[in-house]
């Protein structure tokens, strides 16, 4: 079958390539699912098999946003425990989360994915670690929702084996055994992981956190991931309390503990990493361990300000994460571009902490790095996969901001005129094309009420 091309012209372009190449007015040619060419001015003449031309006047084209940390199931528990720190928040919500089932997980994933996709996310990930006994095929339900939405997806198959009786936080019936968690994780990798260049579904091994997982699960989880050739993900150094917990239980800080269990390396990324000292950052840089920076959630749970400027200066790969919508009710990654810049300017580096282009890089190429897909996505370059967003910048909200990248990052949420994933339109004129937003809204409302009823009965 002949190559089919989509041509986008007359738009500003931020490629986020190694040189941060930008065009005030340029073009992008998409051939099937790849970017064929990007440049200034008009597209080349006499292109064959052009099935669509898009006039991008008044728009900015960027790589699609890449989300590197999320918990989809929390979509149906938004707005609860709004004045808690992390540990108190977990204690308050685990009894409810421990009642989720396959239908709830599917509907919550639909809501989470829809919210991100309509706001410019083309690659999503979900760290799902709650597997109550008898709850059904939760991993399969989440992957199905991602496929239906049309986004590229990484499922970090999580696990917990340290419950209240072992000194952890989750209820006893909400955790798995060591053997059960490892077997189920391996089965998920075998069934769903696709390592190909244009893969739409990948799996990572992802025990939840040091305070909900045994040391043996951390060690054997790392061994499993490397035996299977997949990435590793967990929470790390999120709060002062976590650091105290690690020192009391293991006799060392979180980074030392992670290194002792095989959890530093270029195939690993950690969520949060708020409380990192100089030696922690140096260890991450030395091992090329990645970080998912979640500024909104960190602020919502009063965790603190991550040292992102210092991480970047040291060479640590850093992407952005929404985190679960029970600690970030908006569920939009675009919000994290702005908040990453603003929150980090409250830290030691003040106005020099981050600029708009660094924030955009965190949300695109940085995210691709920590997911291990920087050769395929994250920048607009010939040969890469056609995951891109066309943002409308000529409305009242942005028309007086001359620099479109500044307008995108610091301005109000920009409307998405077109979002392509793998060369396929997923969003047009702000509306999802492959799923029914209104039906998802109704379903998520119904499942939130059902979960509240079930949790309230126990």
Apparent shape: globular
Question: Roughly what percent helix?
Answer: 25-40%
Nearest-integer average pLDDT: 96
Low-confidence stretches: none
Main sheet: strands, sense, barrel: 9 strands, mixed
Q: Count of DSSP helices?
A: 14
Structure notes:
The structure is a single chain. The protein is an alpha/beta fold. Helix content is 36%, strand content 22%.
Task: Give a brief outline of the structure.
The protein has helices at about 85-95, 100-115, 140-150, 180-190, 215-230, 240-250, 255-260, 280-285, 295-300, 310-315, 335-345, 355-370, 405-410, 435-455; strands at about 5-15, 20-30, 35-40, 50-55, 60-65, 65, 120-130, 150-160, 200-205, 230-235, 270, 290-295, 320, 390, 415-420, 425-430, 430. With about 450 residues, the chain is of the alpha/beta class.
Structure keywords:
458 residues; nine-stranded mixed sheet; 22% strand
How is the secondary structure organized here?
Layout: E1 5-14, E2 22-31, E3 34-40, E4 50-55, E5 59-63, E6 65-66, H1 86-97, H2 102-117, E7 121-128, H3 138-149, E8 152-159, H4 178-192, E9 201-207, H5 215-228, E10 231-236, H6 240-250, H7 254-260, E11 268-272, H8 278-287, E12 290-293, H9 295-300, H10 308-314, E13 318-320, H11 333-344, H12 356-370, E14 388-392, H13 404-410, E15 416-421, E16 424-428, E17 431-432, H14 437-457
Parallel strand pairs: 1-4, 1-5, 6-7, 7-8, 8-9, 9-10, 10-11, 11-12, 12-13
Antiparallel strand pairs: 1-2, 2-3, 5-14, 14-15, 15-16, 16-17
């Amino acid at each position: 079958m002949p190559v089919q091309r989509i041509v986008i012209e007359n738009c500003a372009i931020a490629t986020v390539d190694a040189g941060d190449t930008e065009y005030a007015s340029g073009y992008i040619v998409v051939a099937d699912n790849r970017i064929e060419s990007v440049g200034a001015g008009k597209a080349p003449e006499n292109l064959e098999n052009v099935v669509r031309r898009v006039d991008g006047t008044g728009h900015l084209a960027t790589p699609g946003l890449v989300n590197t940390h999320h918990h989809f199931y929390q979509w149906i528990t938004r707005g609860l425990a709004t004045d808690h720190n992390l540990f108190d928040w977990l204690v308050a919500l685990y009894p409810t989360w421990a009642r989720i089932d396959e239908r709830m997980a599917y509907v919550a994933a639909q809501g989470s994915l829809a919210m991100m996709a309509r706001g410019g996310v083309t690659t999503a990930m979900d760290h799902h670690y709650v597997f109550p006994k008898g709850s059904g095929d939760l991993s399969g339900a989440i992957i199905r929702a991602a496929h239906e939405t049309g986004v590229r997806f990484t499922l970090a198959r999580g696990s917990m084996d340290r419950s209240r009786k072992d000194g952890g936080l989750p209820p006893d019936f909400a955790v798995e055994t060591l053997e059960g968690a490892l077997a189920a994780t391996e089965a998920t990798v075998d069934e769903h992981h696709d390592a190909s260049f244009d893969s739409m579904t990948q799996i990572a091994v992802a025990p939840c956190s040091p305070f909900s997982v045994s040391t043996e699960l951390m060690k054997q989880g790392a061994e499993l991931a490397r035996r299977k050739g997949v990435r590793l993900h967990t929470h790390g150094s999120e709060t002062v309390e976590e650091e105290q917990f690690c020192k009391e239980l293991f006799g060392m800080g979180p980074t030392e503990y992670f290194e002792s269990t095989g959890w530093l390396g270029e195939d690993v990324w950690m969520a949060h990493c708020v409380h990192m000292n100089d030696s922690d950052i140096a260890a991450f840089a030395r091992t090329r361990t990645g970080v998912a920076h979640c500024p909104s959630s960190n602020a919502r749970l009063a965790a603190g300000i991550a040292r992102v400027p210092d991480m970047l200066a040291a060479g640590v790969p850093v992407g952005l994460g929404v985190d679960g919508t029970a600690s970030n009710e908006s569920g939009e990654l675009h919000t994290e571009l702005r908040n990453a810049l603003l929150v980090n300017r409250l830290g030691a580096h003040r106005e020099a902490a981050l600029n708009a282009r660094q924030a955009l890089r965190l949300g695109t190429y940085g995210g691709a790095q920590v997911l291990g897909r920087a050769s395929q996505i994250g920048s607009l370059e010939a040969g890469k996969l056609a995951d891109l967003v066309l943002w409308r910048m000529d409305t009242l909200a942005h028309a007086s901001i001359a620099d479109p990248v500044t307008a995108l990052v610091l301005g109000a949420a920009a409307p998405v005129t077109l979002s392509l994933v793998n060369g396929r339109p997923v969003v047009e004129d702000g509306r999802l094309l492959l799923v029914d937003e209104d039906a998802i809204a109704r379903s998520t409302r119904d499942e939130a009420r059902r979960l509240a009823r079930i949790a309230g009965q126990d």
